[in-house]
Write a structure and sequence with these properties.
This protein is of the alpha/beta class and 393 residues long. It has ten helices and eight strands. It folds into three domains: 96 residues; 58 residues; 148 residues, no CATH class. The protein is 45% helix and 26% strand. Strand 1 and strand 2 form a beta hairpin. It starts with a helix and ends with a helix.
């Protein structure tokens, strides 16, 4: 056991070094810095100090080269990146300052402090102004919901970077949000002319947590019209096309049973009419045959619902019906009961247990339809979810 511990520690150190080396080779310098500084806080070692030093210099060199290019380019599209680069330099500097200056094996690691705040503020303000102007332009020239959505994101960033300095931005964000949402109205319908479904059951068929359907922050489902001023982009019809309720079906099956009774008997008589005795002097009994008829009664009644979910585009392109997805569900009443005619002694024990099953009355048509609707509900919800994901934008 004493040999195992040093071996495990050596393996862990080698793995750690290998990980740092790989991250360095991949250019993940900040990961190397994070790991090295944590190690140095616990126990200063030269390999971690060297890794931190090299990664810090290479990361700064990379960011400063990119910053130099971006500032010469002076392209408004790059203001956001410029801000991010300066912010990275500051954060990285703060990270290494948690362990430096530090002296390990005679070598001291220290770095000159650089104040990046002025550049961060300047680039952040420029980025905020650019996001604001882009969002405003997108709002004014929007041709689609995608334009309003992009305007929303641009304005959100402008408000975040600008520290809420733009006076009209909250109203613009709200308007972009409202204009970018795709609204869907889900409408249940009964198309069967022969059987009516109560409205409460139709509503139940589509009742669900609409948040479960909204796979995107830009899609909003309504189960009822929100009002005359609310325009919908899509309609999703949940149609019951036909309802087939069967007649009352009754089946009957008979089984005969025969056995020797354990309680019913006659005495064996001799020619003189006297009761005969066995060798032990006991009366001789002749047990009677007993018979019974088991009657199996089965009642069956079914309801089959056939329908479809159709999604229709009302505003965008293409307009019209985008898809129709069928669904089928059913409910079934099945009652099996047993009666007996004859002597119960003739029945085996398992057959006697069947007599406990009681006969039930046939359910009404309304009850079966309600059960079929309940069974169809999760199927319909699955179709709404999948269809919405595929077609709603």
């Amino acid at each position: 056991m004493k040999r195992i511990v040093p071996i495990l520690l050596t393996a862990m150190i080698l793995t750690s070094c290998g990980s740092v080396t790989k991250q360095m080779q991949r250019g993940n310098y900040d990961q190397v810095i994070n790991k090295s500084t944590k190690k140095l806080m616990r126990k200063p070692k030269a390999k971690y100090a060297e890794a931190m030093d090299r990664a810090y210099k290479l990361a700064n060199e990379r960011d400063l080269e990119r910053i130099s290019y971006l500032e010469r380019e002076d392209n408004p599209d790059y203001y956001d990146e410029l801000f991010a680069r300066y912010a990275s330099l500051k954060e990285r500097q703060s990270k290494v300052r948690t362990v430096t200056p530090i002296t390990v094996e005679g070598k001291t690691y220290r770095y000159e402090y650089v104040d990046y705040d002025a550049k961060i503020v300047e680039s952040k303000n420029k980025a905020a102004e650019e996001f604001y102007q882009n969002g405003k332009k997108l709002m004014n020239n929007a041709l689609s919901k995608a334009d309003f959505r992009e305007a929303y994101y641009q304005l959100i960033r402008a408000d975040e970077y600008g520290g809420h300095k733009f006076p009209d931005i909250e109203v613009m964000i709200h308007e972009a949000r409202l204009a970018g949402i795709s609204r869907v109205i889900v409408v249940p319908e009964n198309r069967d002319p022969h059987i009516g479904i109560p409205q409460i059951d139709l509503d139940y068929l589509v009742s669900m947590d609409t948040k479960a359907l909204e796979g995107s922050e830009w899609i909003e489902y309504h189960l009822a019209h929100a009002g005359p001023d609310n325009d919908y982009d899509y309609e999703m019809f949940v149609r019951v096309l036909s309802i087939d309720v069967s007649d009352n079906i009754e089946k009957e099956e008979k089984n005969e049973f025969k056995a020797k009774s354990k309680t019913k008997f006659d005495y064996a008589l001799d020619g003189a009419g006297n009761v005969m005795k066995d060798t032990a002097g006991n009366d001789i009994k002749i047990y009677k045959d007993v018979m019974a008829t088991m009657i199996k009664k089965e009642k069956i009644k079914t309801c089959d619902i056939r329908g479809e979910v159709e999604i229709i585009s009302l505003m965008g392109e293409p307009r019209g019906s985008l898809a129709k997805v069928p669904f089928n569900e059913s409910s079934k009443f099945n009652n099996v009961s047993y009666d007996m005619i004859g002597d119960a002694e003739a029945l085996p024990s398992d057959a006697k247990n069947l007599l406990k099953k009681e006969e039930q009355q046939f359910p009404t048509e309304t009850v079966l339809v309600k059960q079929a609707v309940e069974n169809a509900k999760p199927v319909v919800q699955g179709i709404l979810l999948e269809t919405g994901r595929r077609y709603i934008k």
